[in-house]
Design goal:
The complex is a heterodimer of chains A (277) and B (379). With 277 residues, chain A is an alpha/beta fold. Chain A is built from 13 helices and eight strands. Chain A is globular and about 80 Å long. By secondary structure, chain B is α/β, with parallel strands linked by helices. Chain B has helices at 13-22, 78-90, 107-123, 140-149, 162-168, 174-195, 219-233, 259-273, 297-303, 318-321, 329-338, 344-349, 354-357, 371-378, and strands spanning 47-51, 96-100, 129-134, 152-155, 206-212, 235-242, 311-312, 361-362. In chain B, the strands form three sheets. In chain B, strands 1-2-3-4 form a four-stranded parallel sheet. The chains are: A alpha/beta (277), B alpha/beta (379). Chains A and B meet through helix 7, helix 10, helix 11 and helix 13 of A and helix 1, helix 2 and helix 11 of B.
C-alpha cells in the first residue's frame, strides 16, 4: 500500500490518519498531482495507492482535533498550536513531510512529544519550526518594501517558504495598496484586485518588476537616515544590546536596515566633508 | 505665518524634521517585544517620534524648548507629519506615530493642531498606532475628540506633587492642568472600553511621564506617586526621563540624574504593574534617604527575605513564583500550566532565566545551590 499525500497541512494530517490505520505503508508526498505522477514513474513503485489531500476540503481544524485531541498541550501554551506547528514546519527548507507524518503518528496524540524535544527527531523538527518562526519575524522587522509604480514590493531572500506569510502580513498592514513579495522568479501579490489580479495570487516576478521599473526611487531613505541619526543618544550607546537586537545576518535584508546596522557597528560619524570646508 | 512661528528661520523640511525628532529622543519605551527599528544604541524606535513644534510658550525650568531660551525653532505642518509618517510606515520602518509638542500659543490651539494630524492620518486610512502627548490644560472637548482617533494619549505629570511642579513648570497648575486631565483621560478610556466591549478593538490606557532628578525628590516618592496614579487614574504605564541640565535654563547648574536610576524606576514600575505588588511592599529596597541602589530591585527584595526561599517550582503559588528573580509573570503563568516541571531545561524552555532563578528555587525538592552560598559567592 502507498499513501500519496500533498505536502500541505491538510495533506499531512490526512496522511497521518491513513498511516495510523496502515503503519506498514510507503509514504510519498508531492506538491500537486503532476509532481506525484512524476515521482511514481521515477520510483517504479507499484501497488495500491491511497491519494490524500489533493482535493482541498479545508477541514484542517477538525483533522487536528481528531489527531491531537481537544486538550491543550502541556508545553505548547507558549509555542504555536499543533496546526501552526505543522504549517511552519512544512515551510522549512529541510523538512521531510514523510518524516513529519511518521513523527506525528509516533506521538500518537501526545502533543507534548512535539514540543518537549526529548527524542532526536522531535528535537530537530521543533528547532525547524522555531527557525521558520524566527525567519518570519525577522522579515517583519527588517524587510523594507518600496512603493514603486503604485505597488508596494520587496525582494526577499530566505531559504524557507514564507513569502506568502510575509505577503499576508504586509496586506494586513497596508490594506489600501497592492503588495508584492518577490522571491526568486515568483512573486506573491496581495490586494491584487486593485491592479486587476486575484486578491491573493502567485505570479511571475517579471510582471512585478515591470511595474516597479516604471517609477524612480523616492527620498524616503535619506529622510529615514536623518530621523535615525536624530534618535541617537551618544551617552547611552550600548553596542552589545544593539548588535543583539539588530543581528548582522538579518540587517542585510534591506539596504536601509544594513545602513542602520553599520551605524550600530561604527557609530555615527561626527565629522563630514563640510567640517573641512 | 502664525505667531508661534515668527521666530522660525527658513528651514527645509529635512532640517525641521531632524530638529523636531531630536526633541523626542528621550521618549523611549525601554522595552518592546518586536520593533521594526532599533536605534544605534539599542533602544527601540518603532514609532516616528516628533514634536509638532519646539516653539513653546511655557517656561519649564528643565526644558531645552522653554520660551526664553535661544534655540533654533521649527515646526511641521500636520500634512507634513502625515506624509513622513506614511513614508516610514509603508517602508515598514515604523509601526506608528508618537506626537508631542511645545505649547504653540496655548494648550487649546496646540491640541487642535495635534488633533488635525490624527484626523488627517485616520482620514487617509492609517491603521498604525498613534500616541499623542497632550498639553497640560487641554480642554475636555478636545481630549474627547483625540480619544476617538488616538490609541494612546495622556498628559505628563513631570513630578510628584504641586509644590515641585510649580517650581519646574511655573505656567501650569498641577491639580487642574495635570491631575484633572489624568482623571478625564481615565474616564474617556473607560467609556471607550465599554463602547468597544466585544468588538475586538484596541483601547489604549492612561500613561504619563516623570522627569527624574530635576527636583530633589526621592525614588520612594516617585514610586508612591506612580502607585497612587495607578489606583486613582488607572495609570498603566509611567515613563521616566532622566534629568540632564540644559545650558541657558534655570537648572543649568543642576547635577544630571544617573541613567541607571531611570532603568531601576522602570523596573519598580513593572513590579507594581505586572507583579501585583504595592508600593508599601517595596519599602525594604530603598536606602535611608528613600533612594534605590543600582541593582535589580526584585533581586534586592528577594535577598532581603531569605526565609521565603527556596520555592518549589511544582507546588508554589503564583504569587510566590513571581517573587523569584528570573521568573516574570509570563514565565510564572507558563510554569503553572506546564507542571510538572522535571528539569532546568524545561524551565529554560518556558522562559525562566535559570542562572538567576537557581538560588531561589527547587524542583521537586532538589536544589542546585542555596541562597546563602550564592550570596557568599557573589560577595
Amino acid at each position: 500500500m502507498i499513501i500519496a499525500f500533498r505536502s500541505s497541512v491538510e495533506g499531512v494530517l490526512l496522511a497521518c490518519l491513513a498511516f495510523r490505520e496502515d503503519p506498514g505503508s510507503e509514504l510519498i508526498f508531492a506538491s500537486d498531482v503532476g509532481e506525484l505522477k512524476g515521482k511514481l514513474d521515477l520510483s517504479g513503485i507499484e501497488g495500491e495507492i491511497n491519494m490524500v489531500g489533493f482535493d482541498p476540503s479545508y477541514r484542517s481544524e477538525s483533522l487536528s482535533k481528531e489527531i491531537f485531541g481537544k486538550s491543550k498541550p502541556r508545553m505548547a501554551s507558549f509555542d504555536p498550536d499543533p496546526l501552526r506547528y505543522v504549517d511552519l514546519l512544512l515551510r522549512h527548507k529541510e523538512c521531510d513531510p514523510a518524516g513529519l507524518v511518521r513523527l506525528l503518528v509516533f506521538c500518537n496524540g501526545d502533543t507534548d512529544g512535539l514540543y518537549s524535544g526529548k527524542g532526536k527527531i522531535a528535537k530537530r523538527y521543533y528547532n525547524y519550526m522555531r527557525e521558520v518562526g524566527k525567519a518570519y519575524e525577522r522579515l517583519c522587522m527588517f524587510a523594507r518594501p518600496e512603493l514603486k509604480g503604485g505597488i508596494l514590493s520587496v525582494v526577499i531572500d530566505t531559504p524557507h517558504d514564507i513569502a506568502d506569510m510575509f505577503c499576508r502580513w504586509l496586506v494586513r498592514k497596508n490594506p489600501d495598496v497592492p503588495v508584492a513579495v518577490i522571491k526568486n522568479s515568483s512573486a506573491w501579490v496581495g490586494n491584487g484586485d486593485l491592479i486587476g489580479l486575484d486578491r491573493f495570487a502567485k505570479i511571475t516576478a517579471s510582471f512585478v518588476e515591470s511595474l516597479r521599473s516604471t517609477s524612480t526611487s523616492d527620498d524616503v531613505d535619506e529622510l529615514w537616515d536623518l530621523y535615525y541619526n536624530s534618535q541617537m543618544i551618544d551617552s547611552r550607546r550600548n553596542p552589545g544590546l544593539a548588535k543583539k537586537v539588530q543581528p548582522k545576518s538579518s540587517a542585510s535584508m534591506s539596504k536601509m536596515s544594513k545602513r542602520d546596522r553599520y551605524k550600530v557597528e561604527r557609530g555615527i560619524a561626527g565629522c563630514t566633508l563640510d567640517s573641512f570646508a | 505665518m502664525s505667531a508661534y512661528r515668527q521666530n522660525e528661520h527658513h528651514l527645509t523640511l529635512s532640517e525641521r524634521m531632524q530638529i523636531l525628532s531630536a526633541g523626542t529622543k528621550y521618549d523611549s519605551c525601554n522595552q518592546s517585544a518586536v520593533c521594526h527599528a532599533f536605534g544605534p544604541d539599542g533602544r527601540c524606535i518603532q514609532l516616528y517620534k516628533t514634536l509638532l513644534s519646539n516653539s513653546c510658550a511655557g517656561e519649564c525650568a528643565y526644558c531645552p524648548n522653554r520660551c526664553e531660551r535661544e534655540t533654533k525653532r521649527a515646526s511641521l505642518e500636520p500634512a507634513e507629519i502625515a506624509k513622513i509618517t506614511w513614508s516610514f510606515y509603508r517602508r515598514n520602518a515604523i509601526e506608528g506615530l508618537f506626537l508631542s509638542s511645545g505649547i504653540m500659543g496655548d494648550a487649546e490651539y496646540t491640541s487642535q493642531k495635534q488633533l488635525e494630524v490624527v484626523e488627517l492620518l485616520r482620514g487617509q486610512g492609517f491603521k498604525g498606532y498613534i500616541n499623542i502627548r497632550v498639553m497640560p490644560g487641554t480642554p475636555k472637548y478636545l481630549l474627547e475628540q483625540i480619544a476617538d482617533h488616538a490609541d494612546k494619549f495622556g498628559v505628563n505629570a513631570e513630578t510628584t506633587n504641586s509644590v515641585n511642579y510649580s517650581e519646574i513648570c511655573p505656567n501650569f497648575d498641577y491639580k487642574n492642568d495635570v491631575l484633572q486631565r489624568l482623571k478625564w483621560t481615565r474616564d474617556l478610556i473607560e467609556k471607550k472600553r465599554s463602547e468597544y466591549c466585544g468588538m475586538g478593538k484596541m483601547v489604549g490606557a492612561n500613561d504619563t511621564q516623570f522627569v527624574v532628578g530635576a527636583v530633589p525628590e526621592s525614588d520612594k516618592e516617585v514610586v508612591k506617586t506612580v502607585h497612587k496614579f495607578m489606583d486613582k487614574y488607572a495609570l498603566r504605564r509611567p515613563y521616566f526621563m532622566s534629568f540632564d541640565p540644559v545650558p541657558d535654563t534655570p537648572l543649568e547648574n543642576g547635577s544630571p540624574s544617573p541613567k541607571w536610576r531611570e532603568q531601576r524606576l522602570y523596573q519598580m514600575s513593572f513590579l507594581l504593574k505586572d507583579y501585583g505588588l504595592r508600593s508599601s511592599d517595596l519599602d525594604e529596597i530603598y536606602d535611608e534617604h528613600g533612594y534605590l541602589s543600582n541593582a535589580d530591585p526584585k533581586e534586592v527584595l528577594a535577598r532581603s527575605q531569605p526565609d521565603r526561599f527556596p520555592v518549589d517550582i511544582n507546588s508554589a503559588e503564583m504569587s510566590d513564583l513571581l517573587l523569584v528573580p528570573g521568573i516574570g509573570p509570563i514565565s510564572a503563568n507558563r510554569i503553572v500550566r506546564a507542571r510538572p516541571i522535571v528539569s532546568e531545561q524545561e524551565l529554560s524552555r518556558v522562559g525562566v532565566v535559570v542562572s538567576r532563578a537557581r538560588p531561589y528555587i527547587s524542583i521537586n525538592g532538589s536544589r542546585q545551590t542555596n541562597l546563602s552560598s550564592f550570596i557568599g559567592a557573589c560577595s
